[in-house]
Amino acid sequence: MTRTARDSVVAGAEPASSTPARLRAAFGLAAVGALLAATAPLLGVVSGGTSPAYTAWPLLVLLALLPAVLAGAFLFRDHPAAAAGVLAATAFFAPGRLLVDLQILADTTYTTRPELFRPTSLTPLTPGVGLWLLVAGHVLVLAAGLLAAVGTDAGDVEDTDQASTRKFLGLVVVAGAVAAIGLFMAPITSSDPLVPTGGPFDAPALAMIGGLLLALAAPAAGVLAASNPAAENRRGGLLAIAAALAAIALPPFAAGLFADRLGVSIGSVLLLLAAAAHAVLARFLGRDTTPEDTAEPHAVELPGLRRLNVTAGVLGLVAAASALGGVLVPQLVVPDGLALPVGYGERLLWPALVVVAVLAAVLVANVGAVRPAFTVALAALPLAAGAALDSVYAATQVGSVKPGNGVWFTVLAVVLAIAAAVTAALAGALEREDVEPAKTQAPLPMVAFVLIGGLLALGGFALPVLRGPDFHAVGLLDFKVGSWGLLAGLLAVVAAAGLALLARPSRAGGLLLGAALVTAVRAVEYPLTSARVTGATPGPGLWLAVAGAIALLAGAAVSASRR
After folding, report:
1. For 493-534, what is each residue's pLDDT tens digit?
2. Are 481 and 393 in contact (CB under 8 A)?
3. Which of 85, 364, 390, 509 is placed for a possible disulfide with 237 were both Cys, Cβ 3.0 to 4.6 Å?
């Protein structure tokens, strides 16, 4: 054999042998790390006789082993790219989880881990052998992910369905953003003073940095996984993100359900919703398209446009009905003999549910042109729910006051609104496939109205609409429950204004109408809730929101007049 032939044989054989070897080694590290993490709660991460808030070890063992089992199943079925995607995506969460768990070593009194231990006094607990197993497990999982990423070469893989990938990439970004919001929030609610609550910004340095890394890991891992050219890698990565989010959310969620004096937080609910969204998106983005499939681009396994519109509209109607339950059912439970306080916070749910219900009913009636306005206007529900839930959170800081059933109706309204928005976005993506792309240029008056309206709306959401002596309105940067509602409303308005400049005239008007309605809901907070503050006066946010809504409506009118 000549030297050239021998070199070509070696060059051709080397990747085929070395890459699977590295992947097998990575899987071995991940499996050992998963076993160590699964053993940790059985041995105890702290010593001193402190027990978990509930019997959590079966759930913790299952969640610790899930990524390794998932990767092993892909390897057993001869899908190495999917297994590599699982290991690489799981490693994204390892640094954050490592720092959060190291907070147990630094000071257990500031650690919220009811599934591992529940403090009974203010005396710091001594770390147990299980903590070192947990730390070692995170390190091995991180090493496994790095080894799998280095050993996977996707450079020669061609994505045969780039249009479908781009179509769903936006939904992956939205799911990652929902996960990040949930990770910024408290994992549980608690009336036990020995069980601390709060998000990353309320935690000590180690836990704060770890929490921020987790919040960044969710959207970053999603974008990287969804943009991978290999369909199998996309599927494995998105499934691993779903498993990682479930592993973070389920233990505190179960603690809120089963442990005494602990409650379920909105953050855990959002994380579980994001985990489910990533699992569903793995089904679509992980489809292995062949040339025969790409010859029929409309054979995507999605419901018809009409059914998606109706589904989105029905979800919107149910979300509005749930918000109505949040208004009519008490948000608080007070001791016997005490009168319920006036629910000023939930009053903002009235205009939000009316807007969503009307647009949803029109969409169900087969008026598809209203879908863009409906999709944007759904942000009014989390905007209003944020104000209501923030009031509940403030009231429940008094030990004798508990959340009422109206809270769950309000949270359900937000979850259903997100589901309706995702469904409506899918309908829009399906509709765009059937429309011939055309370059349109927005007229100058419309551009002016959109830019002015967007800037005014930014001020309307960032500045208070209500002022009063000794009253501090919840702001965008306060990182309270109400802040996330304001952020959801602002992002919806800004995104709709930007897309309206690029959209077809028939859809740009709907986007601007929805943005105007959300901004108007922000403005009516003053007349609906000003009675709660003695000596209340309008804040600058009120006038900016009113002016922004008018400018956005004018932009919608200009767009509707275009041919």
Report:
1. 999 998 888 888 878 999 999 999 999 999 999 999 988 888
2. yes
3. 85
- Contact between 281 and 171 under an 8 Å Cβ cutoff? The reply is yes
d(CA 540, CA 260): 44
Give the amino acid at 420.
A
The pLDDT assigned to 173 comes to: 79
Task: For tokens 């070890």, name the residue.
Answer: 57
Structure tokens at 197: 């609550």
Residue 285's CB: how many other CB atoms inside 10 A? 26
Burial of 389 (0-12, 13-18, 19+ CB in 10 A): buried
Give the Cα separation of 133 and 130 in Å (integer). Answer: 5
Give CA–CA dist 377/518, Å, rounded. Answer: 6
User: Contact 352/310 with Cβ under 8 angstroms?
Assistant: no
**Residue 126: which H helix or E strand, with range?**
strand 126-127
Look at residues 220, 184, 218 and name the one whose alpha carbon lies nearest to residue 203: 184
145: Cβ contacts below 8 Å, ≥ 6 apart: 26, 30, 87, 88, 89, 90, 91, 92, 94
Nearest of 115, 116, 119 to residue 130 by alpha carbon: 116
Element (H, E) at 333: strand 332-333
Q: Which of 347, 341, 352, 315 is closest to 328 using CA atoms?
A: 347
**Residue range 49-75, pLDDT digits in tens:** 678 888 888 999 999 999 999 999 998
453-496 pLDDT per residue, tens: 999 999 999 999 999 888 888 888 777 888 889 989 999 999 99
What is the gyration radius of the CA atoms in the chain, in angstroms? 26
Residue 156: count other Cβ atoms within 10 Å of its Cβ: 7
CA distances for 470 relative to 138, 473, 477, 536, angstroms? 47, 10, 19, 10
In which element (H, E) is residue 262 found?
strand 262-264
How far apart CA 255 and CA 263 sit, in angstroms, is 7
319 and 417 Cβ atoms separated by less than 8 Å = yes
Percent of the chain with pLDDT over 90: 35
Stretch 144-168: mean pLDDT, rounded? 62
Residue type, 476: L
The two three-digit tokens of residue 332, written as one number: 């608080």
- Gap between the Cα atoms of 208 and 200, Å rounded: 4
What's 57-72 look like in SS3?
A: HHHHHHHHHHHHHHHH
28-34 mean pLDDT: 94
Spatial CA neighbour of 165 closest among 305, 288, 295: 288
pLDDT tens digit string along 91-120? Answer: 999 999 999 999 888 887 778 888 888 887
Write the single-letter amino acid at 34. A
Cα-based angle 506, 508, 511 (whole degrees, multiple of 5): 120
pLDDT at 13: 39
End-to-end CA distance of the chain: 72
